[in-house]
Description:
Layout: H1 3-17, H2 37-49, H3 55-68, H4 73-79, H5 82-85, E1 92-93, E2 96-97, H6 98-114, H7 118-124, H8 132-142, H9 165-175, H10 201-209, H11 220-233, H12 241-250
Antiparallel strand pairs: 1-2
Helix pairs in contact: 1-12, 2-9, 7-8, 10-12
Amino acid sequence: MTKSELKDFLDEKVLQYNTFDFLESDPVQIPHLFSQKEDIEIAGFLSATIAWGNRTMIIKNSHRMMDLMGNAPYDFVMSHSENDLERMESFVHRTFNGGDLSSFIRSLKHIYTNHGGLEAVFSKHQEAHSMQKSIHEFKKIFFEIPHQYRTQKHISDPLNNSAAKRINMYLRWMIRQDNKGVDFGIWKTISTASLSCPLDVHSGNVARKLGLLTRKQNDGKAVAELDSQLRKLDSIDPVKYDFALFGLGVFEGF
């Protein structure tokens, strides 16, 4: 199909999938449990962190994290004691365990106490058409306090050629305002034009079938290639096409 036909097709799929019904089967439903900005940020960050594997299990374990934090994530992050963190020891989602969760909670407190919060850290190093350096710098700040070395693997670094799917998805949630009840748009200091598509096996396969991606691996270079193509379709809100690619792959088996 022509570029114009492709754009029309994908725009139609965005309208089909970027709806409130999307929440039913997606971990973005977790931060929607909250109304305070910091609760939304933290609930979103933690649920995006474990967003790999079976989607039902991702959502179940994300609810469990919120329960362990008394369903008040920001208050728990800021006022927890080391004794409070002991209840996290039983948590596990694939390779993310209770020790990792405790480490994340300590690092989040550090970010809110010493760096002005999550939005401030991510916005500090943003570039005109990329959040990849920003993610790299965020990871350095996140792990600048004592932590288990193994926990570092749970935040990807796109400057090491990672697709950083989960953190790009989280940034979409926080920055993109869709007025459809899915993405929040609560971070006003970062432009949607800088966002990258959360690339996974589903969106990657669909993108290749549509001629938007030639690289075979789902890595950082593939993200850059896909971003450049999606920005030709919409330079202001390129990441909206995540809904189209994901929906086509997961719900339609395209």
